[in-house]
Write a structure and sequence with these properties.
63 residues; mainly alpha; globular; single chain; 3-hydroxyisobutyryl-CoA hydrolase activity; 3-hydroxyisobutyryl-CoA hydrolase
């Protein structure tokens, strides 16, 4: 969550499990996406990155 996302998403290999929680809680508080998050959020398909960036919503690994 938060800083962990920004550090790990820019790596060469990304590993996700069913216990994954993706969240950027600082966005829900009215702050901007940090640690380069705006770079990868802007490259997500559709308006998914904008949604995550504006709302600070979290995603879980299980359905």
């Amino acid at each position: 969550m938060g800083g962990g996302v920004g550090i790990s998403v820019h790596g060469k290999f990304r590993v996700a499990t069913k216990n994954l929680i993706f969240a950027m809680p600082e966005n829900a508080l009215g702050l901007f996406p940090d640690v380069g998050a705006s770079y990868f959020l802007s490259r997500l398909p559709g308006f998914f990155g904008e949604y995550l960036g504006f709302t600070g919503a979290s995603m879980g690994g299980t359905i």
